[in-house]
């Protein structure tokens, strides 16, 4: 119980990656109202963790797609990692988020 109180008091002074205004906007859009700064910061930290996990998983899909394996004998070769839409879709699917490619992408047949 004391650990939770200490953590929430830490969050009151914490400067989150996602600003409080952004959290307020999306919380209000979801129908959540709360004036406690600690709770808002907790939501911000949870959202930051969610985004970081998705980005990490998408990078793993990118590595698999590009065939980046362990280091081979000899000098390490630096390869540029390029995150694709498909990598992001695969990572989001693990978390139950469905994302489709918009029809206005330039590489689709419907794009003029």
TrEMBL record:
InterPro entries: TAF10 (IPR003923)
Main location: nucleus
GO MF annotation list: promoter-specific chromatin binding
Keyword terms: Nucleus, Transcription, Transcription regulation
Protein's GO biological process: transcription initiation at RNA polymerase II promoter
UniProt key word Isomerase: no
Cellular component annotations (GO), alphabetically ordered: SAGA complex; transcription factor TFIID complex
Location relative to the cell: Nucleus
Taxonomic superkingdom: Eukaryota
Keyword Zinc-finger attributed: no
Family classification: Belongs to the TAF10 family.
Protein name: Transcription initiation factor TFIID subunit 10
Organism expressing this protein natively: Selaginella moellendorffii (Spikemoss)
